[in-house]
Amino acid sequence: MANPAARYALAQQLIGQAGRALRLARLEAGEILQKTGPQDLVTVYDRRTEQFFRQAIQAAFPGDSIVGEEYPQAAGDGGAVWYIDPIDGTTNFVNQHRNYAISVGCYQGGQPLFGLVLDVERDALFSAQAGGGAACNGSPIRVSGRRQLPELLLTTPGVPYTFLRGHAQQQALIRLAGQVRAVRSMGSVALELCQVAAGEADLFVAMRSSPWDHNAARIILQEAGGALCTMQGQPLPQDGPSTTILAANSLQTMQMAAAFLHGA
């Protein structure tokens, strides 16, 4: 395997170029499509951006695998595994042209190498390399020191899925929302996990998420001192089907929230 630094340098270059292109993008009629319904959108820019990353990564590191949102996995022969979400927060991209991100995570042998999440319109790059701490635009970031439920800010990317649609944790999450200081929703898994990493939020829940949504931001969160698991308290798999996520500014906060959700 080549030096991870070469992959990190390539990822930084590509995410910067892709971000500049998206900031200039203006959607035309017919460029917005529904996947499974009106709350699950894709645009031509999601697909163009992912193809841009795929082509550059495969050219530079042909043995690497690529797991992205818009196309089938490109399987390599034992190199690193890249997780790419070309636009995390597509609805925000369509309706607001802000609060969306490009997310790029890279792992080797199941171990994290680096994560990059670009808040495109703010031009704010959250980054972390394994063992190197987390940063935003080069300045170190750290989770908050808040630990008690009444002082926590809870964020969730999908209010209907978290609070309005029936599921096993619905009533517990509604009770949790009544105990914390406030609940906010940005509509982007990656950006909301980075909010926890930067100390701007303290607790995060999502009832659905995929590896390309969270595998970059989870590295940033953990390097900033945070923790995450499934809603059932199990380790969050690196690669697998969509799963619930509970993330927090510390292992202590995460365990407290998990105990609350399960009535302990």
Q: Spans with pLDDT under 50 lasting ≥5 residues?
A: none
Structural class: alpha+beta
Q: In order across it, which strands form the biggest sheet?
A: 3-4-5-6-7-8-9
User: Helical proportion?
Assistant: 25-40%
Main sheet summary: 7 strands, mixed
Order of helices and strands: HEEHEEHEEEEEEHHEHEHEEH
What portion of the residues fall into strands of 2 or more residues? 25-35%
Shape: globular
Mean pLDDT: 93
CA-based gyration radius: 18 Å
Distance between the termini: 46 Å
Please tally the helical runs, counting DSSP H or I stretches of 4 or more residues.
Answer: 8
Please report the total strand number as a whole number.
14
Topology:
Layout: H1 4-24, E1 32-37, E2 40-43, H2 44-60, E3 65-68, E4 81-88, H3 90-95, E5 101-108, E6 111-119, E7 124-129, E8 134-136, E9 139-141, E10 153-155, H4 159-164, H5 170-179, E11 182-184, H6 189-197, E12 203-206, H7 211-223, E13 227-229, E14 245-248, H8 251-261
Helix pairs in contact: 1-2, 6-7
Keywords:
single chain; 264 residues; alpha+beta; 5-stranded mixed beta sheet; 8 helices; 35% helix
Descriptive account of the structure:
- The structure is a single chain.
- This protein has 8 helices and 14 strands.
- By secondary structure, the protein is α+β, with helices and mostly antiparallel strands.
- The chain starts with a helix and ends with a helix.
- The model has no long low-confidence stretch (mean pLDDT 93).
